[in-house]
Specification:
Blueprint: E1 3-9, H1 12-20, H2 23-44, E2 48-54, E3 58-62, E4 65-69, E5 73-80, H3 84-89, H4 95-98, E6 104-109
Antiparallel strand pairs: 1-5, 1-6, 2-5, 3-4
Length: 116
């Protein structure tokens, strides 16, 4: 079955804004969002090929060397679906952006086969 990379996107300024909220407000959002996220994962468990995870700060390596960098990637998941539209539908109204301050989930097909 085709595999798709789902990238959780969140602008860096949204992370800063969320972390600037009082701890009680952050905890309230977490308290509301985490159970919904867990229930979502349970509903689509058969489609998850790699649970991935949330990621932290970026270090960029290029010809100039290594340095801290910024981007909007905050996590990933790998799903299996018949089409990219079916993969995208799995993320409809996802708590990443419906409850948490995430911006979107970007879905991309893998164009190479998984490792043997």
């Amino acid at each position: 079955m085709p595999r798709f990379l789902a990238i959780y996107m969140m602008r860096p300024e949204n992370v800063v804004q969320f972390r600037a909220m009082p701890k009680a407000e952050q905890d309230a959002i977490d308290g509301a969002g985490l159970p919904v996220w867990e229930a979502w994962e349970q509903r689509i468990m058969a489609s998850i090929a790699d649970r991935g995870g949330m990621v932290g700060k970026t270090t960029r390596v290029n010809q100039a060397g290594t340095a801290p960098a910024s981007n909007s990637v905050c996590g990933y998941l790998v799903v299996e679906a018949e089409t990219i539209e079916a993969a995208a539908e799995l993320f409809s109204n996802h708590p990443h952006f419906a409850i948490f301050p995430g911006d979107s989930v970007d879905i991309m097909p893998f164009v190479t086969e998984p490792p043997a």
